[in-house]
Every structure is written in C-alpha cells, then in structure tokens.
Design brief:
Layout lengths: L7 E10 L5 E9 L5 E10 L14 E5 L4 E7 L7 E8 L3
Antiparallel strand pairs: 1-2, 2-5, 3-4, 3-6
Length: 94
C-alpha cells in the first residue's frame, strides 16, 4: 500500500456475503499523523479463479482523513461471482 508508513494504519478488514450473494468489504483504519492525509483507493474484485472481474465501478476514489482520526472504506462487489478483492492505494499531493 502506498499509504502505509505515511501515518495511515489499517486496523481491521472484514467481509461478508449479502443476502443477495454479493461480497461486501469494509476496511477500518486510523490516521496517526498530526496532519490531514489524502489518498485514493481502488477496489479490484476477483472471481474464484483469481481473475479480475471487469467493472466500471473499479475507479480511483479520493479519501481525506483528519489528523488522529479513524476512517472506513466500504464496498460491495458488482457481481455474485466475486469471492475475493484487492484494494490498491496511491498518495495524493499535500
């Protein structure tokens, strides 16, 4: 992750399958620094064979976290075929 070591700590990653069969994920973290941290994230969904599921929703999303504050990222898969995921991050200029 591009944001680990920049004051961002991931505290918990959880997932569940919704009643409709879609994978739902949540990442909880904390900005431990004394300044605002801005970064982008992108969720990539994977099928049972580890192949990427193409979707228009896998776009970079901006996040801005206040100093010494928690944050959460939540996403729901675009297809019931998703059984795993990857979250990519990149830093933004200050």
């Amino acid at each position: 992750s591009a944001v680990i070591g920049e004051g961002i700590v991931i505290q918990n990653v959880s997932q569940r399958v919704t009643p409709a069969g879609f994978l739902e994920v949540q990442v909880q973290g904390l900005n431990q620094s004394h300044s605002i941290r801005r970064f982008d994230y992108q969720v990539v969904w994977l099928d049972a064979g580890g192949m990427v599921i193409p979707t228009k929703t896998s776009v970079w999303q901006p996040v801005s976290v206040q100093p010494k504050s928690p944050f959460a990222i939540r996403a729901i898969s675009p297809s019931p075929a998703a059984v795993d995921f990857r979250i990519n991050t990149r830093t933004q200029p200050n």
